[in-house]
């Protein structure tokens, strides 16, 4: 069999092997500096690569002039900026170009886009999703230099890899631990589903069940131990699953987790109104605590864990959650114990409160299971 | 250049943007605003190159129909060729983009699969390349291209016996000069350098209409002759090949290495004068300029430029340049330890004679008996003793 001339020519050159590397592959140079919630940056993108994407050489003479670039500055920003998504605390930061200049790198002329931005949600890390020239040059890389607290870190970004987490580890171990500890506290205080679940389990701790109904507990000691058992079981359980999920050992779909958490709140609250589980509430706390741990992991995922010091941040976040939870217990227990024999506590707080919690959590359950917004729909009307 | 007043720098940018692009250090001067719309900022590669202009048009066509296999294969092939000839890796990115619909799948048309394997090889993903080629050889035993390419990749990773088996299977399927050329490198490294060389010379004796194949075979003959220590013959082969294709970057690199061994650095200045954008060739130029006292100024600029390019490659995570960087560390920066580390890492994936040489030179300079033993054992096992004996320190 005779192979075509064209193929032989092609293969002959293929057989010569490749010079190890030459010229320069396509890189863009991206600098992002963060100060709190505001970002400043600079993005150097090769004109040759932009020509490939946008056809800058309008007159087709093989030269890119400043005139050809200047008239397309808006197009260039409109092409590039949506391909750089930066988020913090699970929310996207808004980036806008402020100026465009020209610079020269080793392989030719680059446009320099100055960027300014703000992040609506604060967070210890930034998640950078880089997709410049996706589909046009799979070998393109964005060389990111991330600056924070006077420290800079370099990473190579590409559309092929998953979004990169930067930051969160500048400023030393103590500072980093403190950041995640803080985030943990904040998360439990603003995570109403976790608080309502805990409160539902704690409400009966200052009461004793008799055949005639609930009566006030006589011993603070007994109430204290009851609370301690529930809180410890809950803590242990969610610490286990939080770690497993944060380290990607066990991963559950978030809709399933969130729906399960809503259901756990409904059941815990209903159990106060129609008691089924009496002495074993700590077991329920443990079982459902496993689910809540996956929920915490979801929040931690949005914050991003710095790859270099994962364990430290995870421990900080977990202990923060415990601290926040303990603060709730410390407030709750003396207050509830003081009010335990009042009619108001038993009827309004305990029975009424549990019923309201069950109702609210049922709505969450429906919202999360069916992916609809019941509360927002009501609010809209 | 960094200290020049802005207006001068801008004026220079207008007039000599190409020159600037070549010599400007990585961390360039401050960004500026050009003051004239007519200022030429960038000269695109297709300027004055009709083949590249055609490639650009074909890419536009492909963008409208990205799944059109025929266009995609044509674009990928041309881009790959351009990347090789010019030594410009951006074209490999373009080739890969053209093959995107077929890049990750297992069941891929043979033409796309072959190009994919060739591209992977050019990215030094030898494992991935061989996996594709193995599949192709099984599914399409009628394609000599697949075996020919696989023989090359197998030679690069040091599997000479397997490479030879692929070449042998090509007999009567392709022109005999292609078979001999295919066999020459693995055979010469499997202990039959003299026979392989004579076979090639004989095949070259017969006139062939295919200049590409002739140039390729002459280059191979030059490389083998140089390894055999016959520098006069080697130079003759290289010059024959250069007459057929004066632009071939691979060939120029091989010839420059011979000139370095012959201590004729001044001839390299002429050979590589227009190729400073190609890092592989810039390395040879720097090695030559280092030996020429009157080239001191240019040498300094080129050395810094090359160091910046190695840095840039490292930043983007490329590890394809280790062989060249090892030579640079040893010969220019006088850093035997760093050179040896690079040479060892390189040797783990690539086993061409040039890789062996880099390893042995770095091992000797660093005084690392262990690494030197790895290299000499390999040389003894593959009858490369004479090649190793001609090897001398690149620092002089």
How far do the termini of chain B sit from each other?
A: 30 Å
DSSP helix fraction of chain B: over 70%
Strand content of chain B: under 5%
Q: What is the rounded distance between the termini of chain A? A: 78 Å
Largest sheet of chain B: none
Number of helices of chain A: 12
User: What portion of residues of chain A is helical?
Assistant: 40-55%
The Cα radius of gyration of chain B reads 22 Å
Main pleated-sheet profile of chain A: 6 strands, mixed
- Care to count the β-strands of chain B? 1
> Averaging pLDDT over every residue of chain A, what do you get?
85
Order of H and E elements of chain B: HHEHHHHHHHHHHHHHHHHHHH
Structural class of chain A: alpha+beta
List the total number of helices of chain B. Answer: 21
Low-confidence stretches of chain B: 1-28, 392-396
The overall number of domains of chain A is 2
The arrangement of helices and strands of chain A along the chain is HEEHEHHEEEEEEEEHHEEHHHHHH
Any idea what the radius of gyration of chain A is? 29 Å
**Shape field of chain A:** elongated
Considering residues with a beta carbon less than 8 A from a beta carbon on another chain, report the largest interface and each chain's count: A-B, 60 and 94 residues
Based on CA inertia axes, which overall geometry of chain B fits? globular
